[in-house]
């Protein structure tokens, strides 16, 4: 601890990169606080962060380990701060999240820089705040505002909370000098006065709020124990603070080992691992300031928006003026809508659009550091486009294709610089979806790969490395899942049984509702393209083809696996579809039987896990966690279930193997049964 100046001792949180409050840091802070309290030269204390953070909260790596329970545990440290006879002021710059914000809440006063980002994200880890957050925050800013912060887990800037009662002062610059002055003032006044009050909030008001919030819980929130526990903790705000804190702690500890919390911690780690290339592939990324996007359709416009939002200059190219104008308009509409919704001010919206240059003149490609192609999904078209890119792009520029299924190597072969080519597989809508598959072709160089990964991070996405194989990681697993679901309707389930089973475990939509939404004709086209190569012995469910032949292409024709009444959000059961399915079962000689939701889920998850093991064995996915990140970020797999690999690892191995044998038998010819070992390697 630096020498106290003017009677103020400053305790610096110093555990890079984000000052997570692991045992060692907690012990240092406790010792420094004790020393400050014992030193007659110290009248007041300021706690400040260092680097980019005040503190990102409890150390996630410590959860479930003995160190988490080793004294001083976080609540113990915070009790010491709150009870300090000398005022303690938090000086907050950078992030103050979870236990980090709770540390600040235990102080007698708080000064924050306006750009500081504060929040209680514990719910995203399957937890509730466990060191006073649920008790002190509502006492300071009110139940509704506090609940909103804890239930969405999103950080907010100090500027937006300036009037909330959370901070004593919000300042434009370094908060430390202001915190020092405030600390001294409090010392002169004889202690802190800005602490969360000790008394409980009015019981009737608390009860009414909690009852209402409980009724408003959404189905996916009800599936996660932390949402209900958060309301139980809020109920305790009507108790005196010490009792409220004890109740909160008990609830927090009851959540730490729940399957949901374990899965969410696993996802937290897997996501941070996925964005790093394996050691053998690492290289310094090239700077990307100007990116070109070719094709201004659904994906091209979305990708352009993502690039503009991240501060890049964008060159947008098309084949004709009408398509270019459509893309330009879609982008303008998007920024306009954001400005109208108050998410951007008009100046920001204008600034972002000003960085867009939409043109039919391909010679501008010479200005691009990186080019992303998003034209029609046809090899010949893409190859022609890449030949053209090769003619104009400057040497060393990174050249990417957004293809969903085509071979990245065949596209790269149209250029004389395959080392600079790779796949950047965005998901729709590209400015919203977090997943980005970064596809490594046979000749993709390390620098191009590193640049693709770095671009993903710069866009706020989760980039995941994938090998160049049909469907990459995500679509390959999704296809295996969808195929298994088709088997299940042939075996006896109805589409709605399957959809209900999957939404019942937290998928946003079931596979058949998704198919209807995206349009059955895309899959139909691909199936017809593959028909000549399909082994006739393969188990193949032709319901989708029959639906398409009948003109039932999904939602866009008001009919697919379901029928859609105009104005209604969900589809209705259709007897024609049931007959088609029954006919398919009969043709295969299957005596239909009802499938329980649990069986449906297990078969779906097993099919995904099986495909994951194949992808790992083939080296398409580099790490088991990568597969789970892809499914969660791109395909609506419930995050609190961890992903198919995580799920498989929770199952007794013998049961898994036996059920997979059964699945392989039922899948018949064409079902490749994986060796599951790769799923269990860390
Ligand atoms: N514990 C341990 N490590 C953490 C951490 C935490 N709370 N927060 C971040 N880290 C680590 C990351 O794992 C990563 O490590 P790596 O370099 O080895 O991969 C490193 O810090 C940097 O993190 P990011 O890559 O995420 O960096 P960003 O700059 O993108 O984001 C951040 C920084 C906003 C702080 C983000 O990491 C974050 O949101 N962290 C989680 C914060 C959180 O959930 N806190 C609540 C913890 S639970 C709690 O406090 C319980 C309490 O109520 C009792
Ligand atoms: P789209 O049909 O909406 O847009 C394609 C655009 O490319 C059109 O505007 C067209 O005019 C333009 N184009 C075609 N040939 C061109 C050429 N020679 N030069 C310049 N522009 C040309 O298609 P969408 O949906 O945007 O898909 C584009 C690519 O993204 C495809 O490869 C697709 O597989 C892939 N993709 C699509 C996803 C989706 O959900 N739509 C998701 C992920 C990838």
Could you explain how this protein is built, in words?
With 682 residues, this protein is α/β, with parallel strands linked by helices. It has three domains: 8-256, 2-enoyl-CoA Hydratase, Chain A, domain 1 (Alpha-Beta Complex), CATH 3.90.226; 292-469, NAD(P)-binding Rossmann-like Domain (Rossmann fold); 475-680, N-(1-d-carboxylethyl)-l-norvaline Dehydrogenase, domain 2 (Orthogonal Bundle). The chain has 28 helices and 17 strands. The strands form three sheets. Strands 12-11-10-13-14-15-16-17 form an eight-stranded mixed beta sheet, with helices on both faces. Helix 17 (446-458) links the parallel strand 16 and strand 17 (462-467). Helix 24 (597-618) crosses helix 27 (653-667). The two termini are 40 Å apart. The chain binds 3-hydroxybutanoyl-coenzyme A (3HC) and 1,4-dihydronicotinamide adenine dinucleotide. 3-hydroxybutanoyl-coenzyme A is lined by residues 17-18, 20, 56-61, 74, 95, 97-99, 102, 121-122, 125, 127, 129-131, 133, 272.
Overall CATH class of the largest domain: Alpha Beta
Question: Oligomeric state of the chains?
Answer: single chain
Identify every distinct bound molecule in the structure, by name, code or SMILES.
Answer: 3-hydroxybutanoyl-coenzyme A, 1,4-dihydronicotinamide adenine dinucleotide
Percent range of helical residues: 40-55%
Name of the CATH architecture of the largest domain: Alpha-Beta Complex
CATH superfamily label of the largest domain: 2-enoyl-CoA Hydratase, Chain A, domain 1
Q: Report the uncertain regions.
A: none
Give the biggest beta sheet: 8 strands, mixed
How many helix segments?
28
Q: Report, as a whole number of angstroms, the end-to-end distance.
A: 40 Å
CATH topology of the largest domain: 2-enoyl-CoA Hydratase, Chain A, domain 1
């Amino acid at each position: 601890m630096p020498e106290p100046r003017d009677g103020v001792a400053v305790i610096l949180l110093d555990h890079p990169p984000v000052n997570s409050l692991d045992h060692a840091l907690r012990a240092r802070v406790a010792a420094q606080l004790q020393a400050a309290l014992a030193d007659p030269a110290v009248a007041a204390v300021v706690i400040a962060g260092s680097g980019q953070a005040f503190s990102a909260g409890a150390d996630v790596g410590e959860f479930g380990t003995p160190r988490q329970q080793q004294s001083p545990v976080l609540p113990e440290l915070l009790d010491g701060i709150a009870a300090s006879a000398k005022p303690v002021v938090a000086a907050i710059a950078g992030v103050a999240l979870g236990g980090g914000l709770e540390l600040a809440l235990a102080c007698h006063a708080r000064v924050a820089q306006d750009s500081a980002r504060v929040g209680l994200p514990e719910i995203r880890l399957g937890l509730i705040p466990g060191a006073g957050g649920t008790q002190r925050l509502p006492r300071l800013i009110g139940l509704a505002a506090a609940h909103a912060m804890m239930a969405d887990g999103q950080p907010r800037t100090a500027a937006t909370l300036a009037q909330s009662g959370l901070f004593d002062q919000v300042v434009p610059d370094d908060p430390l000098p202001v915190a020092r002055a405030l600390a001294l003032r409090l010392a002169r006044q004889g202690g802190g006065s800005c602490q969360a009050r000790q008394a409980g909030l009015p019981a009737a008001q608390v009860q009414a709020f909690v009852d209402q919030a409980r009724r408003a819980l959404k189905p996916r929130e009800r599936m996660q124990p932390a949402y209900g526990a958060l309301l139980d903790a809020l109920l305790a705000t009507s108790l005196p603070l010490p009792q409220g804190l004890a109740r909160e702690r008990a609830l927090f500890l009851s959540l730490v080992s729940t399957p949901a919390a374990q899965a969410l911690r696993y996802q937290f780690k897997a996501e941070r691992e996925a964005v790093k290339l394996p050691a053998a592939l690492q290289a310094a990324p090239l700077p990307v300031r100007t990116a070109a996007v070719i094709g201004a359709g659904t994906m091209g416009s979305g990708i352009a928006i993502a690039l503009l939002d991240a501060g890049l200059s964008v060159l947008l190219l098309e084949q004709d003026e009408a398509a270019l104008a459509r893309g330009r308009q879609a982008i303008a509409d998007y920024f306009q809508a954001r400005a109208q919704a108050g998410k951007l001010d008009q100046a920001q919206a204008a600034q972002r659009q000003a960085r867009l240059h939409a043109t039919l003149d391909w010679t501008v490609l010479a200005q691009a550091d990186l080019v992303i192609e998003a034209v029609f999904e046809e090899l010949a078209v893409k190859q022609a486009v890449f030949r053209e890119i090769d003619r104009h792009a400057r040497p060393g520029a990174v050249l990417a294709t957004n293809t969903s299924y085509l071979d990245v190597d065949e596209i790269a072969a149209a250029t004389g610089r395959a080392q600079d080519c790779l796949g950047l597989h965005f998901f729709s809508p590209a400015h919203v979806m977090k997943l980005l598959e970064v596809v490594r072709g046979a000749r993709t160089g390390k620098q191009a790969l590193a640049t693709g990964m770095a671009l993903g991070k710069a866009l706020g996405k989760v980039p995941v490395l994938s090998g160049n194989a049909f469907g990459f990681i995500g679509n390959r697993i999704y296809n295996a899942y969808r195929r298994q679901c088709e088997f299940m309707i042939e075996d006896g389930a109805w589409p709605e049984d399957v959809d209900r089973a999957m939404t019942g475990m937290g998928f946003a939509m079931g596979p058949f509702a998704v198919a209807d939404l995206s349009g059955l004709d895309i899959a139909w086209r691909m199936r017809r393209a593959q028909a000549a190569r399909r082994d006739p012995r393969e188990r193949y469910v032709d319901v989708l083809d029959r639906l398409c032949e009948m003109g039932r292409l999904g939602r866009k024709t008001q009919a697919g696996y379901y029928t859609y009444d105009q104005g209604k959000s969900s589809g209705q059961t259709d007897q024609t579809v049931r007959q088609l399915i029954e006919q398919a079962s009969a043709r295969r000689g299957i005596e239909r039987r009802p499938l329980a939701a649990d069986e449906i889920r297990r078969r779906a998850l097993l099919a995904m896990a099986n495909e994951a093991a194949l992808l790992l064995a083939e080296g398409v996915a580099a790490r088991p966690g990568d597969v789970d990140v892809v499914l969660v970020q791109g395909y609506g797999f419930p995050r609190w279930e961890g992903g198919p690999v995580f799920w498989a690892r929770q199952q007794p191995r013998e049961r898994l193997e036996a059920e997979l044998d059964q699945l392989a038998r039922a899948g018949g010819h064409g079902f490749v049964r994986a060796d599951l070992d790769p799923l269990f390697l860390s």
